[in-house]
Amino acid sequence: ATASSWGPEGPESNRRGYDYLGQARSGFMSAVGEPDMPPLLAASPIADQMGAIMLAYGILAALFARDRFGVGKEVNASLLGSMIWLQCLSINTSLLAGWEMPRQAKSQVWNPVYCHYKCSDGKWIALGLLQSDRYWADFCKAMELEKLENDPRFENLVQRAINSKELVPILESRFASKPSDEWVEVLQQAELLFCRVNSISDLINDPQVTANDYITEYDHPALGKVNMVGFPIHMSETPLSVRMPAPE
Fold this sequence. Notes:
By secondary structure, the protein is an alpha+beta fold. It is built from eleven helices and seven strands. It folds into two domains: about 100 residues, no CATH class; about 90 residues, formyl-coa transferase, domain 3 (2-Layer Sandwich). A hairpin with a 5-residue loop joins β3 and β4. α3 packs across α4.
């Protein structure tokens, strides 16, 4: 099995690369952010991680094929290919439509209730009302914005998309009137889809993160008890755990 930067074929197959370059060449950096921003680098080394994940995926698939068909395979996964695969939905959409999906300004989102808003304490709330027509009346009631429910500018998904420049500032102003804890309570009581926009330091206090051991405590031989990232999957009969430190 081989991990490469740009794939096993082509004129640059032997050229070296790093995470930064994988994010750049795959189109990822040009796809995130708002229209007037320069290309943005993800805070996490996502290309390195995706390359490793896809290499492991390929190895497991090859081992399964060997056991079933008795044939071995050479496996290669690259930073470039893995990052393109990560974006397959948006890239396929662009290829099929014949035009590149543009960056979108927050003020011009196609669905203003599938967006994020800043609260009075500086924290952010992300709304997940993808089926906005289904939840629009309940949302307006919960936000005490009943007058918007039957406003012809916002009466359905299409009109809210057309008039997002008008709706987004209204919602920004409303969310800015209360701290995030109050909005969490309001939105939970209304049974609407939402979540907090966490920072890295917020994760350790997120009850879902801790309940599922997505961040777990580990007794490090040199550092003592530390918190570190756990496993994103659970196995019923063979629970996963962090058992040893990284090799030095």
